[in-house]
Amino acid sequence: MADSITKMLEESGDPRGPLSALNPFTTADLLNSVDTSLLSNAVDIKHDGNEWKAIVKLPGVPKEAVNTRVEGNNLHISADIEHSILAGGPDITVESNQTKKFSHSVVIPPQYNADKLETRFENDTTIITIPKT
């Protein structure tokens, strides 16, 4: 009996391997279902004579997940994004919890006053403004 099961699994022809007949999911299936747009982000730095701005685009990230802090003349921007993914088939359901991290640091020019940093959120964009001293 074990030989006939092994033969059936080997003949399944599934590129995920012979055990896929018993488990309709692979880790790759779960990872492919993740919205990778959260990983693509952009940080634009703009400054004129009056203010310095960091514009951070994080699609799908709620404002509560975005953190900003200043250490010396460095601005640190970070976000932890948690996802719960459900995948399944007729006889099995798999839940995967994942955390994605975003982190970016930038030097604030000395002519700008980091003590007066202001953060505002517009849709999926965090805008950090620092006035000139």
UniProtKB/TrEMBL annotation:
Disordered, as annotated region: 1-20
Domain of life: Eukaryota
SUPFAM superfamilies in the cross-refs: HSP20-like chaperones
Domain SHSP positions: 34-133
A Pfam cross-reference name: HSP20
Annotated family: Belongs to the small heat shock protein (HSP20) family.
Name by which UniProt lists this protein: 1286_t:CDS:1
Origin organism lineage: Eukaryota, Fungi, Fungi incertae sedis, Mucoromycota, Glomeromycotina
